[in-house]
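Section 3.1 - Work completed
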Amino acid sequence: MEELKKKLKKELQQSLDSKVLSEQSWTFTAHKVLVSYNTVTKTKMDVLMKMMLMTLQKLNIERPEELAQMLGVELLFIEDLLSIMKGAGLVVNKDCWSITQLGIAQLKTGMLLHETEIEETELLISPLHDEFLEAEKSHPLQGNLDSFRYDRDPENWSADTIPADLLQTELSAIVEQDNTAERQRIVEQVLKVTAIEKVQIPCFEFHIHNPNQDALYARIWNTFSDQWDETLEQLVVGEERSAWRDRYLSKEEEVTHET
C-alpha cells in the first residue's frame, strides 16, 4: 500500500507540474446489507399455451380430454399446461374450464406471469457516495488507519436510511442482467434490509498546489475502485480549501494571489 501511495505522489508531481503539499491515509465506511425481495418472472408463452387460451376464450371446455382432442395434442401436455395456467390465475375450473380476465390480458402480451419468488442478495453501500459498490469485489486491508474526518457517523447508520428508489434501481439492475426476449425477471417488492457488516475502505489523500495556475486542490485515491474519487475530493475541497492558503502558503503569497 505504501508503494502505491509513493507511486501516486510521484505521478501527481510529474504529470501536473504541481507540488504535493501534504498527504495522508484514512478509511471511510461502507455497509454490507442483506436484502430480501420478491421477484416476478415473465416467460414468453409457447404456441400450445396460446392455442389453449384462445380456445378457452371462445369455448367452455368441461374436460381436458376435449381440449386435447380438439387441438390434436397428447392429454399429458394439456393437463400439465392447465395446471400451470390455473396456478398462475389464467384459467379457472368451475364445472368447466374457462379463461380469466388475467388470462385474456396476458394472452394479449404473449407473456406468462409466474408466481412471485423470494430472493436474497448482499449489497455494499457507501453513504458518502449515496451509491452501491461492487459487493463481490475484494477490498484491500490496512491496519491502524484513522477514520475519514467526514465519515457519516457509521456507528449510528441504519439500513432504513437507504433511499427506496436507489435500492429499487440497484436490485432491478441485478435481476435484469440475465433477461432475454423469452424470459424477463422484475423486482416486485423489497421485503427487508438488514445491516450485516461494516467495511473499511482505505484511501490516499493529497493536497496539491499548481503554481502556474495558482490552484489548490485535493486528489483522493480510492483503493476499492482503484481510481481517483471525485465525490470525496469535492467533499474535502468544499470544506477545507478556503483555509489552505493560511496552512500551506506564505503571507506574501496570500497577498499576491487570490484563492
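Second construct:
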Amino acid sequence: MPKIVCKCGNWISYSPIPNPAELLFISDVEYDAFTDKIEPDELYDKMKHILVCDQCERLWVYWNGFQSEPTCYSKETDTQGK
C-alpha cells in the first residue's frame, strides 16, 4: 500500500481509488491542447497529483509523477497579525 509520511507525522496513503486525499490538476495550456473528444486516460496522464494531509493541510505535489520525490507546501503563517 503506497503511502508517505507527512512532516507532521501523519501517514497519507495514495492507493485508494477514488482517493479522498488526492487532488488532480492540469495547467490551462495543457488542457487547451486537447481538441475534439477528450479520452479520460489521456487527460489523466497529463494531470499532476497532489496529496493533502488531513491533519496539517500540507500539500505534497508530485510534479514528475510518483516515481519522483514530491514537493511539500504548507500554509503561510500570518506573523503580522493581519
